[in-house]
Design brief:
Blueprint lengths: L7 E8 L2 H6 L7 H7 L1 E4 L1 H6 L7 E5 L4 E8 L8 E5 L2 H4 L17 E7 L7 H11 L6
Length: 140
């Protein structure tokens, strides 16, 4: 099995981080905001299984969509099979809308597949423009 053929099923959970919170000051379109939210924290053993180094790009796929972000080793390990993403547009690309009738998205325990990729990480503006096209609006 080659590096590019490897994938791992995980439970994806999202939440706030200090870096993500600080990036909310000002605009969410900054490089700082992208660096704080276009990331997924993985258990070191899971990174080893995928032959990943820190800062390698990974593709995360759920029932709702796919996004490319950077892999980071979690300081909260061990937690094999659990991936964590800071809240933001990158995580929102993946999480299902709530189905409990109360309008809250499913921020925890989302089934996901993670795989190494050479694809680039989209900018926040690219993601916003993709959403706008779905709604029939012009790019920002």
């Amino acid at each position: 099995m080659t590096h590019k053929d490897k994938s791992l099923k995980v439970l994806l959970t999202t939440g706030r981080t200090i870096e993500q919170g600080k990036s909310l000051v000002g605009t969410k379109l900054t490089t700082k905001a992208k660096q704080a939210t276009a990331v997924c924290f993985l258990d070191p053993e899971d990174m080893e299984k995928l032959q990943l180094e820190e800062e390698d790009n990974i593709k995360i796929t759920t029932s709702e969509g796919m996004i490319v972000v950077r892999a980071k080793k979690s300081n909260e390990a061990p937690h094999p099979g659990i991936a964590f993403m800071p809240l933001g547009i990158y995580a929102n690309w993946l999480i299902p809308p709530g189905d409990a009738g109360i309008g809250v998205p499913q921020y925890k325990e989302v089934e996901a597949t993670i795989a190494p990729t050479k694809e680039g990480i989209p900018s926040v503006v690219q993601l916003i423009n993709e959403l706008r096209k779905v709604k029939g609006k012009k790019d920002v």
